[in-house]
Design a protein that fits this description.
InterPro entries: Ribonuclease_T2_eukaryotic, RNase_T2-like, RNase_T2-like_sf, RNase_T2_His_AS_1, RNase_T2_His_AS_2. One of its GO terms (biological process) is RNA catabolic process. Residues 1-21 form the signal peptide. Helices cover 36% and strands 15% of the residues. The chain has 254 residues and is an alpha+beta fold. It has a single domain (25-65, 101-249), classed as Ribonuclease T2-like (Ribonuclease Rh, Chain A). The longest helix has 17 residues, at 2-18.
Length: 254
């Protein structure tokens, strides 16, 4: 009985703490190249609004930690309440690699479409879904809000509006085109040239993610731009990111 009560108290404390402001370090504004999303063995599907424009589309605005957290605070809390037996709970909750970003911070706060009704036209253009699961961008936005937006310390409208504003301020396709990096089904580009072009064009370093096309060739897939905790200004990315990129990458036509 004592153990059951202790577990109940522990989870109530953890639930209460989840309602406080999240203390993440920065945002990733993640934009994906639609040609690379679609040019894979899995393929893609266009949303109910039709084929998106041939430009980078927002994947999400994701709160992130500058360093994975080991969960020592949770471990200390569990041990204080359960003794050494609380260690297994912390390990299961945090995971072997620690917690590298917050997610699903408020399951009771679903996206309310009327909160973003004035942004829908811009979201359809700049934040479309290419997944074949539903084809409805609203479901995509709802998922991104539930997983990442509820951890952003931003209201629903602000969360989406600030991502749109950052994308508009820094047109990645135009930045790359200015450096001679344009979509092609045959040409490849030095990864360092892509990275340098983005740093020069936006004023800040970014992280790059690649995938492989249906023939196994490496292509630029997503650009991770780093943003301050208010979601307003770009910053240099504070940490490197694992990548499947090689020295030469493609930017396929969409």
């Amino acid at each position: 009985m004592k153990l059951v009560i202790a577990f109940a108290l522990l989870f109530s404390l953890l639930a209460a703490s989840s309602s406080t402001a999240e203390k993440f370090d920065f945002f990733y504004l993640v934009q994906q190249w639609p040609g690379s999303f679609c040019d894979t063995r899995q393929g893609c599907c266009f949303p109910d609004t039709g084929k998106p424009a041939a430009g980078f589309g927002i994947h999400g605005l994701w709160p992130n930690y500058a360093k994975c957290r080991s969960g020592q605070q949770g471990l200390a809390l569990a041990r204080a309440m359960l003794g050494d037996g609380g260690a297994f709970l912390s390990a299961a909750t945090v995971g072997r690699r620690g917690k590298c970003w917050p997610e699903y911070c408020d399951e009771g706060n679903p996206l309310r479409p009327w909160e973003i009704r004035d942004l829908v036209a811009s979201l359809d253009r700049d934040w479309p879904t290419l997944s074949c699961k539903s084809g409805r961008s609203l479901e995509f936005w709802s998922y991104e809000w539930k997983k990442h937006g509820t951890c952003s310390n931003l209201a629903q409208h602000d969360y989406f509006e600030r991502a749109l504003a950052l994308k508009a301020e820094h047109d990645l396709a135009a930045v790359l085109a200015g450096a001679g990096i344009v979509p092609s089904d045959t040409d490849t580009y030095a990864l360092s040239s892509v990275s340098d072009a983005i740093a020069r064009g936006t004023g800040f370093t970014a992280n790059l993610e690649c995938n492989r096309d249906a023939d196994g060739e490496v292509q630029l897939f997503q650009v991770y731009q780093c943003v301050d905790r208010e979601g307003k200004e770009l910053i240099d990315c504070p940490l490197a990111m694992r990548s499947k990129c090689t020295d030469q990458v493609k930017l396929p036509v969409f």
